[in-house]
From TrEMBL:
The organism of origin for this protein: Salinibacter ruber
Membrane-crossing residue ranges in chain numbering: none
Annotated ranges, domain Sulfatase-modifying factor enzyme-like: 236-340
Source superkingdom: Bacteria
InterPro entries linked: CTDL_fold, Sulfatase_Mod_Factor_Kinase, SUMF_dom, SUMF_sf
Protein name: Formylglycine-generating enzyme required for sulfatase activity
GO molecular function, one term: formylglycine-generating oxidase activity
Record keywords, A-Z: Signal
UniProt-listed Gene3D superfamilies: paralog of FGE (formylglycine-generating enzyme) (3.90.1580.10)
Ranges where the record places region Disordered: 449-499
Span of the signal peptide: 1-24
Length: 522
């Protein structure tokens, strides 16, 4: 069926409108209203989020994609390279945003157009110019359109280091290092350009320790190379999701799939889903997230890849992971992704008035800077760092909960390094890179991973609701690794350089499996 026929079919069949867009860590994106001016089609949408910034290092952004809902399937609509504008700015003393449309026209980044001190809210009404399918007219567009939003952080081009400055016996498990002529030295490896990288091939190459147990070695890498120039090694600029995909975002994704597609991608079918703070359920014929800002767990690799493709994003690599965590700074021994070796645990969810919370929302907080399992907690089929207050139980938290606490307790007056540590943020502002849920990454330790070229999702899934990018790791997990640890890990698993599972194809659904996606900067 042609794109025009698909759109016309929707009009005549009176397909249901999409559900209201779910919040994602305070990002609010309204349904899109079709506006036609001089025969040109636009989608008008309200976009707002809090604690936004633009400084001399980087900025945060909203990544917006547009779909025409057809029954329960979303037909992606392209955006024009120019012609977008601001209709209204509701934040005092703030000018309109910059629009940075992707090269493939799948979506646009929207971010502050000028530097400012500190952080604050963005609140705009935007008008995005559409490129209609061949043969379609503005009159063919249904209303409302679905505009999906994801908060991202910009990671600028530049050199950075991977690994840890300690010897392997003291460093985080299987951390990267540079091979040197001195076989007793294991310095961090510096990535200084986007070229190919030699692997475990003598002085000047990137490597990681060989383990005595052959089985353990299988999960860190094959010690082969090189890493080709086509593999995104982190030097070039890219955007990374500020938070892990939330349950609200994933419910919105489920609600625009066809029935048989939804059956393939629904994590609540997993055993013990609701025992581990999964909060997505079916209400009538719509999926609803009772805790929309909570990190979305129980996602298989097929689920994660499908969401990334549908949202116009891509997987991140393990080298990009370390850059997002550490930035250009020299590695610190045993550091976490907020740049220090200090970590704080909290097991109680408090209300804004510091009493134990009876529910969970945007005003609740936890005293700590990461979701993990502290020393001394017994293992019983999984670590059990159970929360008191809120919804209690074991599992993921609201993705911005530590950020919220840090800013509430004097963030504006904190030094930047202290604020970063208090909120558990990476160098460029991504949260939850240590703890919470594993970050699935494309490994350098496997030939399938090294074939990754960083292609982006096109917003359209193949049958049955699957990502179709040939260079992405396949659905059996070959080419994947895990970084950052989960809420079930103790501190050693959360360190920036830890590669305990650097080459481990975790394709299955589990309580600690979510998704965080990236996109090469336009």
């Amino acid at each position: 069926m042609s794109s025009r026929s698909v759109l016309l079919a929707l009009v005549f069949l009176l397909a249901a409108a999409p559900p209201p867009t779910a919040p994602a860590a305070e990002l609010r994106v309204s349904d899109g209203e079709v506006v036609v001016e001089d025969g040109v089609a636009y989608v008008e949408v309200d976009v707002s989020w809090r604690l936004s910034w633009r400084n001399d290092t980087n900025w945060d952004a909203a990544w917006l994609t547009v779909k025409a809902p057809v029954g329960r399937e979303g037909v992606p609509l392209k955006l024009a390279p120019t012609g977008h504008r601001v209709v209204d700015t509701r934040t005092p003393d703030q000018s309109g945003p910059t629009f940075s449309v992707s090269d493939d026209s799948v979506g646009t980044f929207v971010y502050r157009d000028a530097q400012a001190d500190g952080r604050g809210p963005n609140d705009w009404t935007l008008r995005l110019r559409l490129v209609l399918p061949e043969g379609a007219t503005p009159a063919d567009l249904p209303e409302p359109l679905l505009v999906h939003g994801v908060e991202m952080v910009y990671v600028p081009e530049g050199p950075f280091s991977v690994g840890d400055p300690q010897r392997p016996e003291n460093a985080p498990a299987n951390a990267f290092y540079e091979q040197t002529a001195d076989t007793t030295a294991f310095p961090p490896y510096r990535i200084t350009d986007s070229g190919a990288i030699r692997m475990c091939d003598g002085p000047g190459s990137l490597c990681y320790p060989r383990l005595d147990n052959p089985y353990d070695s299988l999960r860190v890498g094959d010690f082969q190379g090189p890493i080709p120039v086509s593999y995104p090694n982190g030097y070039d600029a890219f955007y990374l999701m500020k938070y892990e995909v939330t349950q609200g975002q994933y419910a919105e994704f489920l609600n625009v799939l066809k029935g048989n597609q939804t059956a393939e991608r629904t994590p609540p079918r997993a055993r013990k889903y609701h025992w581990n703070r999964g909060a997505i359920s079916l209400a009538g014929d719509e999926y609803v997230a009772a805790r929309p800002d909570r990190a979305c767990n129980y996602l298989s690799w097929a689920d994660a890849a499908a969401y990334a493709d549908w949202a116009g994003l891509r997987p991140m690599t393990e080298l990009e992971y370390e850059k997002a965590a550490r930035g250009p700074a020299a590695p610190v021994p045993n550091e976490f992704t907020w740049g220090s070796a200090t970590i704080a645990h909290g097991d109680t969810i408090f209300a804004a008035d510091t009493t134990i919370a009876r529910s969970e929302g945007g005003d609740t907080f936890v005293r700590g800077n990461a979701n993990y399992t502290p020393a001394g907690v017994n293992w019983n089929g999984g670590y059990n760092a159970t929360f008191t207050g809120g919804d209690e139980g074991v599992g993921p938290l609201r993705v911005d909960i530590f950020e919220t606490r840090a800013h509430r307790t004097g963030g504006a007056s904190m030094p930047d390094a202290s604020l970063r540590e208090a909120s558990g943020a990476g160098y460029y502002g991504a949260h939850g890179l240590s703890g919470s849920l594993f970050d699935r990454v494309v490994t350098v330790g496997d030939p399938t991973g090294r074939r990754f070229r960083g292609t982006h999702g096109d917003g359209d899934l193949s049958y049955p609701a699957s990502a179709s990018n040939e260079d992405w790791p396949p659905m059996n997990g070959d080419g994947l690794g895990l970084r950052g640890g989960t809420r079930s890990d103790g501190p050693p698993g959360l360190r920036s350089a830890t590669r305990e599972w650097g080459d481990y194809g975790a394709h299955y659904r589990a309580p600690g499996m979510g998704v965080r996606a990236a996109r090469t900067a336009p």
